[in-house]
Amino acid sequence: MTEQINVPGQLIDSYMPANNAGDESDGVAIVSGGMDSITLVYYLIKVHKAQPHLLSFDYGQKHIKELQFALACAERLQLRWSLIDLSSVTDLISNSALTSKSSGEVGDTREIEVPEGHYAQDNMALTVVPNRNSMMLSVATAVAVNNKYKYVAAGMHAGDSYQYPKP
Predict the structure, then answer these.
(1) Taking the chain (167 residues) in consecutive chunks of 10 residues, what is each chunk's mean pLDDT?
(2) Which domains, from first to last, does the chain contain?
(3) What is the b/e burial string over 2-12, where b = at least 16 CB atoms within 10 angstroms of the residue's CB?
(4) 0.85 cut: is pTM over it?
């Protein structure tokens, strides 16, 4: 892997700690950079003495700054981090406030504003990205199998659960 230098505020596609001659990761953790997934990383390290390879996903989401937080977490904890580009599917999953975008053309009203404030049932539905978690878990599992890792970990917002289809 070519060594990359992180310029503050600029997102890179991977990070390997300088002191990590070989990859010492033992599993994969999906990390958006938000509070839930960052808490998961600290839990894995503190409680399980784990060394997760952090995976983040660019699916065309508007809140790109969370990816910068995920990278900052990897740097702070000296963990391997990879950014997976899923942006080619953004237009196919654009009925969410997190992925919708207006083309700028007259009459294009596809832009859905991201709700501000506390997540409530009324506005939570606007932020659901169709099958996002399944896509991320599928890729994370492939990375884990390829690297013979022991686990795949993901920390999703508990409030999301009632927004997804039930069997």
Answers:
(1) 44 77 86 93 98 91 83 95 83 59 52 62 60 86 96 80 55
(2) 14-89+131-159 (3.40.50.620)
(3) eeeeeeeeeee
(4) no
